[in-house]
């Protein structure tokens, strides 16, 4: 885990659903970056002094064998950058459902999303609050997430709204201070590639903060003992062979490999004592 993440996480604790989200978004980042390079290279061959954009589309589409409908350059860019936002938001929705399952396994088998109105994130935060779990997600991150979610829904469902009110409500100074290398957020009609990067980075950050919020509420001893066949499946072998020291290392490694967390010596001793 890189140093920047550790700065705000303050722990190496992680869960499978969060690692999967980071992996999935990382793979999509690479795909979008490829598309952006191809798009910039293509648009770099357009010269407004020599031909109209429609003529450029017609000429180049004929050459490649792909029929392009008439569209303005501004509309093309707007829809392109809005389109980039679809997958990260869909992936985050999937993460939330997986996160619910993680909470059920780690803390409370009865845990479920709240039924309040709002996004899946709203429902999750409300449900966690009712369990006494309060992720430290700053307001500007939640507002930024909602803004890009609105833009995603706009292009996915052809809503054709401008979202100026939502944009104006964003605390851009605080956002710029936290995401220092990115030129965003921007209005719907002026989206940039940086908006995609900002959207994805913010989603990853929120997912991290949701993840680390669970750590204080996990009873590791109870968790491992209640799920020993899943979490430490080879424990019987070490017990049978009387290799208690090796079992100690095995229990520690199993938890650390799956959750990035190192159990303290007393917890491991208590687990092993209950297994014997």
Mind sketching the topology for me?
Layout: H1 3-9, H2 16-43, H3 53-64, H4 73-84, H5 86-106, H6 120-130, H7 139-156, H8 164-168, H9 172-178, H10 193-212, H11 220-226, H12 228-231, H13 235-240, H14 244-259, H15 265-275
Summary of the model, kept short:
With about 280 residues, this protein is mainly alpha-helical. It contains 15 helices and no strands.
Give your account of this protein's structure.
It is a single chain. With 276 residues, the protein is mainly alpha-helical. The protein folds into 2 domains: 18-30 and 76-215; 219-275. It has helices at 3-9, 16-43, 53-64, 73-84, 86-106, 120-130, 139-156, 164-168, 172-178, 193-212, 220-226, 228-231, 235-240, 244-259, 265-275. The protein is elongated and about 85 Å long.
Order of helices and strands: HHHHHHHHHHHHHHH
Largest sheet: none
Quaternary form: single chain
Structural category = mainly alpha
State the distance separating the first and last CA atoms. 35 Å
* Overall average pLDDT: 93
**Alpha-carbon Rg, integer:** 24 Å
How many distinct beta strands?
A: 0
What is the approximate shape? elongated
The tally of domains stands at 2
Q: Indicate the percent of residues in helices.
A: 55-70%
- Strand percent estimate: under 5%
The poorly predicted ranges are: none
Number of helices: 15
Defining traits:
mainly alpha
